[in-house]
Every structure is written in structure tokens, then in C-alpha cells.
Amino acid sequence: MSPERAEQIAVSALIWLSTNEDLLPVFLGASGAAAEDLRGLANSPAFLASVLEFITMDDAWVMAFCDAETLKYEEPLMARYALPGAEAVHWT
Q: pLDDT by residue for the chain (92 residues), tens digit each?
């Protein structure tokens, strides 16, 4: 996945997250971000990566996001690994 496509998915995830009244406060608490800062942070690939890391912590969140955005369930994690700071996972 290209970094550009990964950023598109991550921005979609941030928008989806920002409209989720139950999940947004959990993300803000976990990330330390303030709601009023989200728009500016959307330009940061590292912050976008943190959005995807958060969403991919729970299968139900991944499914809800992907269903809302018509994405394959594996795309958020693929996008996460295409953004800065990701470490490759090797399943052995």
C-alpha cells in the first residue's frame, strides 16, 4: 500500500472516529490529543498512524470503520504499516 493511500484511509478513520460519540473520548484519553486539535493533527502522518493503531486494537472497531467506509477489514492494518513508525510483524 502506498503511503498516500494509507494517509487517505487514516484520514477517513479520523473522521469516522471524530463522529463516534462513544469512542472519541476513549481515543482522546489514550492519545492525549484534544478534540480542538484534531483538524491540525490530521496533517501529521505520525498522528494518523496513531489513529489506525487505536482502531486496530479492537476487531469490532475495525469492522465498524471498514463497513462504514466500504473497506476490506485488513486495510486499516495495512495502512498502519505503510505509515511512519510501524515495525514489521513476523508471524513464526
A: 898 999 999 999 999 999 999 999 999 898 888 888 888 888 888 889 999 999 999 999 999 999 999 999 999 999 999 987 655 444 44
Grid coordinates given for 74? 485488513
In degrees, rounded to 5, the angle at the alpha carbon of residue 58 between the alpha carbons of residues 50 and 27 is 40
* Helix 3-18 and helix 59-69, axial crossing angle in degrees, nearest 10: 100
* Cell output for 1: 500500500
- Rounded to two decimals, the pTM is 0.85
